[in-house]
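Honest question from a wet-lab person: if I give you the sequences of every part of a complex, can you actually get the arrangement of the whole thing, not just the pieces? Trying it with mine:
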Amino acid sequence: MGVDGRNDDASRRTRGLAASLRRIYATFVKELIQLRRDRITFATMIFIPLLQLMLFGYAINTDPKHLPTAVLVQDDSAFTRSFLAAMRTSGYFAVRSVAASEAELDRLILSGAVQFGVQIPAHFGRDLIRGERPAILVVADATDPSATGGAVAALQGLSANVFARDLIGPASSLAPRLPPYELRIHRRYNPTGETRLNIVPGLMGTILTLTMLMFTALSVTREIERGTMETLLAMPIRPVEIMLGKIAPYLVIGGLQMTLILTAAKLLFGVPIVGSLGLLIGLTMLFILANLSVGYTFSTIATSQLQAMQMSFFFFLPSILLSGFMFPFRGMPGWAQYVGEILPLTHYLRIVRGIMLKGAGLQHLQADVLALAAFTLAAMSLAVARFRQTLD
Amino acid sequence: MAEATLRTDPPMAARGSQAGAAIVIDVEGLTKSFNGRTVVKNLTMQVRKGLIYGFLGPNGSGKTTTIRMLCGLLTPDSGRGTCLGYDIRTEADMIKRHVGYMTQRFSLYADLSVRENLEFVARVYDLDDPGAAAEDAIRRLGLENRAGQLAGELSGGWKQRLALGACILPGPQLLLLDEPTAGVDPKARRDFWDEIHALAHQGLTVLVSTHYMDEAERCHEIAYIAYGELLAHGTVEEVVANAHLSTWTVTGPDLAALAETLKRTEGVDMVAPFGSALHVLGRDADRLEAATRTMREAGPQLWRRDEPTLEDVFINLMSRSRDNF
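Yes, you can. This is the full assembly:
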């Protein structure tokens, strides 16, 4: 009754992989047209990554030099002059002011006018010659440890041989002796310690996380808010087909962003790609897919576009802070590292830094690639399970 | 409750004897509630193939909820049924393949053009040549000049035409139209109904909800639903006859004052102004006769026996249902 030959024919047509692929393609084309028509979003996708790359790539430096320094000189000897000269040539210190008293030195530090205060006490030269080991006081504003870390380390290296030229003749017995061994340090992959070599590949990860997350997070909620979801649900299309069709255009966009960032990294920032470019592209696409699935999952859980945005930010912040992008991953306590291990950005940072700077191959990155793939699969399954197929 | 007396359908066994009248929608005892509020209560209905079935009722009466349950967009709390022979609970996939559902609110993509919207639908339903199918639909709808226009920029009437076009594009066997003519001008409404009749003539079954009484007259059969309950169904004539309302039409001077008096009179169940006349109705013909005798004889108004309109019937059904609510 009611079911005639046509229906059986039609049922055959709704099943099968080919029919499924055609429905995914239908959604893909629809999303692509909508995307193209939304000029602002489209522009955002291209300009946000470029702008952020320029801004952060050039701006962020974790090893700052020429830090403002105040000196309080109470001794006028060759040693004092040598010490101050050595400080200056280290590149970390720029003497901005000469304090007249300890109180003034304190005030300069407290007000933030200088990062360092150096006090060379009275009779420093005389006491030094007498072998009394007089103290030079260096006060650092360590509210931001990473801002002073490099300078303090340089200062410690400095004290070993700063007076070598002054300690001659009878005073030569005071000159520091060489340790009975030699310490050789190889700063591999980034010998000059350039921050941008660390930051620019990382930026690719954060920029892709932010943009990919946002775009898909809005995709399902937008259909609900505009009322088009009812028509979509009344059509013979499966949740997984809708998801893949909606994600696919953003894979293209993500690929475009990746190309832009990689080109800029190479041409503007001189970041090398030591490893395989093909592997880098392939794994970056996997990372893009991972983020798209997270965004899409949020989209199926949120009831409004605002909620979806809030969820994205809830995910984005830990991604930046716990992934090792901003702060050293190994510096975090165990539990924080566990949280970090869940985030796709953590694994991607290892992958992108590994390939670009260290020339790592797939065999070195296995664990991270598997983690990314597992994450993507889990997020997609959750999204499909969460997708409301009815209006209940 | 009232259902047993209002049901005019033949019992299950007799149904097969109706020549060529396959049942397209056959549901029994559908109930749906949201947050503890029952929106559809124990709804039973049958719709035969090829009919235009009008689904009438005031706003919030459960029409949309019922339609959504029929096409698998909502799961009923209880009750069972089939749509095109497919179970509405378990075979929603197949129902979606063969049912065209036109939502109350325009729900195609406003940022896609007319052609792109139709092509999307054609692709999702996996038609052989989506481009050609969309072009055909555009020609049939008379949208040639607007094919490239964004759907969101169309006027209300054209939006509605497009939505109907998208519904019938995949060649469905059943159309579920949820208040398709709301907010559409009279000319577009008439064209729309002509189209519906043409489709029904080709063998399509159409369930159309509306709250316009004049549209009820264009349906082969109607059902009236209020407060989630199906209160009456059948042809318009059957529904009017089954209401058993005794009706008088009063014309003349001072009708407003007379209406006030009549409303307080025992045996008069309904008084409704009707153009320049007054409709006076009662469920019990004898009591109405007795109650109005003195007024009829005293004048100066002119009293005339009449037939109740569909609207009278519905308002009566609604007020009676509210008393029971």
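Two things worth pointing out. The mean pLDDT of chain B is 84. The longest strand of chain B covers residues 23-34.
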